[in-house]
Specification:
alpha+beta
Length: 568
């Protein structure tokens, strides 16, 4: 076995030394030792150069590879960005087109908010609805505030939250710049003689943690905030409907008269022209002054009041601001939403008015028929009640028996008008909403499912979705007789009676015979319920008094009628 030193020299020195000695042999120098020394020195320099060249080559290859990958990556990233942009633009176009013809813009809010989030990179996007202070259906005071009605999926917790008036910076979107408003008012009055709309402004907070007025609904985080007003002229309210019905009928009459006059003038001109052509005289024709043609009547303009919505976006948690392009994009969508909300409400009100006027023609015939039938029914009810009671029955019991029969007839009448009542779901504005509200309460529907979040007022958009087969099945099964359990405070009889006290049968019938049938059924339900409780209490008291006189044990207390409890 060779010594390690020998092995080392053989492996690390031997090959190079042998190459050097071979060179000495080939060259045959005079001083071979000097030649070998210089050869070895030159060999080392050559090897170092070769190693450096190889290293440089590898580095160039690596740099080329890195550059190629970077270029390919950038190209791929550009392609992805372009594809994403095209997808956003395509979705933008699709949503804009869908919005332009949408009858109920609220149904598109989730899609629009998601689009805004994708396009701007926002953390959350949400819409608030500002309501002024008012009184609720149950007399409660409703404070002014912004209630959030729509939000992207990760901000659903914000729905129905209320931002109190003048809290935070959001309310600034509703404050007009007075100087600009005065200038615009003067300019508009000169040009058109009309009152201009107030200008609203965008609220933009680049860094929310640096604005002490910011209000946080959750944990404060770094980021930006933008609020854009969605203020428009709303016409979906009862006064606009009433005035719209009157104006539409008047417009129809004026239009019919205009068309009749126009046809009469055309016929007169044709007759005159025919007479002139038939005349044999060649007298010079006198120039006649042309009558100024009458203009057709203008379609009705609906009453409006200002509805104030606000579109909000934030980048909380991202520590970045919205770009000017982002804000411009947000404003463009806000303008589209405002335009569609206003147009959709006008279209919906026009449709509701048209359907109402059409229904009134049928309503008139039904009213006359119902009056005749009601008179005949009253005679039958009196006869049936008299046949069912002993001759010595009290007037109180007679009335109760007759009202029970009236209640049964009223239920059949409601079911007869089922189709017409269901058609009221298509109305965007409904008159006498408390009739439906009391009906839902009496039939056990949850208050939260039919009223506005911040008040006890009926939310017709929610309530009309529950006007379905279940509603009529529940109504058919309802009885006002006997003890009631589990009655909610808002559904107790005294409160339901109070809801209806300012509404008359005549005015409901005048609006809709179908809705009038529901009102009649409700009135009788509450009336029979009150009489039933009174008579059962009276009977229980008489039994206790009789037991005391006979010295017998008093009968067990009757079940409590929760809907008639005094603490209701």
């Amino acid at each position: 076995m060779e010594h390690p030193d020998v092995l080392y020299l053989k492996e690390q020195v031997g090959p190079y030394l042998a190459e050097g000695l071979a060179s000495v042999c080939i060259s045959q120098p005079e001083d071979p030792v000097d030649f070998l020394g210089k050869w070895l020195l030159n060999f080392v320099s050559t090897k170092e150069l070769e190693l450096q060249l190889e290293k440089d080559k590898l580095q160039r290859e690596q740099d080329h590879k890195t550059q190629f990958e970077a270029t390919a990556g950038a190209r791929l990233e550009q392609e992805k960005t372009a594809a994403s942009k095209r997808a956003l633009e395509a979705e933008d176009s699709r949503l804009s087109e869908e919005l332009s013809s949408c009858e109920e813009p609220d149904t598109l809010l989730p899609s629009i908010l998601n689009q805004l989030k994708s396009a701007t990179g926002a953390t959350g996007v949400y819409v608030g609805d500002y309501k002024e202070a008012s009184a609720g259906a149950e007399g409660e005071e409703i404070e002014a505030g912004i209630r959030y009605i729509a939000a992207t999926e990760d901000h659903q917790w914000l729905l129905d939250e209320i931002l109190p008036e003048e809290v935070g910076v959001t309310y600034d979107v509703f404050k007009a710049d007075e100087q600009e408003d005065e200038e615009e008012a003067a300019e508009t009055e000169e040009q058109e003689g009309e009152q201009p709309k107030k200008k609203s402004k965008i609220v933009h907070v680049p860094n929310v943690l640096r604005d002490e007025r910011m209000h946080f609904h959750n944990i404060p985080l770094l980021g930006a905030y933008v609020a854009v007003p969605l203020t428009y002229n709303s016409c979906l309210f009862e006064e606009a409907f009433d005035a719209g019905v009157t104006d539409t009928i008047h417009y129809g009459e004026e239009l019919a008269q205009y068309e009749a006059d126009r046809k009469e003038k055309e016929a007169s001109k044709a007759a005159a022209a025919a007479a002139a052509a038939a005349a044999s005289e060649e007298a010079e024709e006198e120039e006649e002054e042309e009558e100024e043609e009458a203009l057709p009547p203008s379609p009705p303009v609906y009453q409006t009041h200002t509805r104030r919505l606000v579109l909000c976006l934030d980048t909380l948690g991202q520590n970045r601001d919205f770009s000017s392009e982002n804000i411009e994009y947000i404003q463009q969508w806000a303008d589209k939403m405002v335009a569609r909300y206003e147009a959709a409400e006008r279209e919906s009100l026009a449709k509701s008015i048209e359907e109402y006027i059409k229904s009134q023609k049928a309503n008139k015939g039904l009213a006359e028929k119902n009056t005749a039938e009601a008179e005949a029914e009253e005679e039958k009810i009196s006869a049936e009640a008299a046949a069912a009671l002993p001759e010595d029955a009290s007037e109180e019991v007679k009335k109760f028996t007759e009202d029970k029969l009236r209640f049964d007839r009223a239920k059949m009448e409601v079911l007869k008008f089922k189709t017409q009542i269901l058609e009221l779901r298509t109305y965007k504005v409904i008159k006498h909403p408390r009739v439906f509200q009391v009906a839902f309460y009496l039939l056990g529907f949850e208050k939260s499912s039919i009223v506005q979040k911040e008040s006890s007022n009926l939310d017709w958009n929610k309530a009309r979705m529950l006007l379905n087969e279940k509603f009529f099945t529940t109504l058919q099964e309802y009885t006002p007789l006997g003890p009631k359990k589990g009655i909610k405070p808002y559904a107790k009889i005294d409160k339901l009676v109070n809801h209806l006290k300012d509404i008359s049968q005549e005015e409901v019938d005048q609006y809709s015979i179908a809705l009038g049938s529901l009102y009649r059924w409700l009135s009788l339900s509450l009336n029979v319920r009150q009489q039933d409780v009174h008579l059962r209490k009276q009977q229980a008291e008489e039994e206790r008094e009789r037991a005391q006189e006979e010295g017998a044990e008093a009968p067990a207390a009757a079940e409590e009628d929760e809907d008639m409890a005094e603490d209701s």
